[in-house]
Amino acid sequence: MVKKAGRHIFSRAKAIFLDLGFDAFNNFHYLRHNLRGNRVRKQYFTADAEHPPVILLQGFLGTRGVLLPLEKHLRESGRDVISIDLGMFNVTDIRKSAQLLSYKMERIMDRFGNSHGITKVDVIGHSMGGLIGLYYIKRLGGHRLVRKLITLGAPFNGTWTSVLGVFPFGLLSKGIWQMLPNSEFLKSLKSHPHETQSTEVVSIAASFDALCPPASCHLHGAKNIDVAVGHAGLLMDKKVFQSIDECLAEKSRGNKVVNLTRP
């Protein structure tokens, strides 16, 4: 059993190395933007956009800086965008991050809802940010406000790559343990709610992602899309941005917040 686990960890480490090599350009820019930290210029809603505003959520060990390329693209496409500060490098309990998101969404709606005529928003979450978004809409009432949740490399089925982060971050980050396959957090998220709700979910996975491979991101009941990039490319590559544009532009298919438990 120990040997099997060791081989699995080794294969994951090898896959990460290959991912970094394949997507070197995007990984370089991801790191460069990540070093910007969370103190990036805040841009609020202009009230000129014809579409629901878009809320962006960074992933594990990510800062708001990594969201800047996508934010710029969406703004140039005529959408209002705001990235949420989830704390330095986003390493806390996913439940607590979702509660923080809920609080900040209430403040956004109090400040801009009536004056800008906002009734719905779209949420885009990268990696662990996608889990935060799903927890928000399924457990904290976010389905009443969120029209579409688009996730980028979110490990809904867990990822064994989290094991590689247990040693350096396990004592500091509850989120590491929550992203392991069959974690209590994921079991809870999969089992609730059974009733249908109103948010459409789209899961975009990266074909060459070693951290959160497509099998860990494919979500039963959601619209699943694979794009030929690595994990960092999900926030940097124009192919992904095009898929996001298409998903945002599509008329809602009437999907509901998915119950992850297969029938």
Brief digest:
The chain is of the alpha/beta class and 263 residues long.
Query: Helices and strands, in N-to-C order?
Result: HHEHEHEHEHHHEHEH
Number of helices: 10
Number of domains: 1
Number of strands: 6
CATH topology: Rossmann fold
Which secondary-structure class do the elements indicate? alpha/beta
| Weakly predicted, low-confidence segments | none
Amino- and carboxy-terminal Cα gap: 31 Å
CATH class: Alpha Beta
Q: Tell me about the largest β-sheet.
A: 6 strands, parallel
What is the CATH architecture descriptor?
A: 3-Layer(aba) Sandwich
**Strand percent estimate:** 5-15%
This entry's quaternary arrangement is: single chain
What does it look like?
The structure is a single chain. This protein has about 260 residues and is an alpha/beta fold. The protein has one domain: 3-Layer(aba) Sandwich (Rossmann fold). The chain contains 10 helices and 6 strands; from the N terminus they run ααβαβαβαβαααβαβα. The longest helix is centred in the middle third of the chain and has 23 residues, at about 95-115. The two termini are about 30 Å apart.
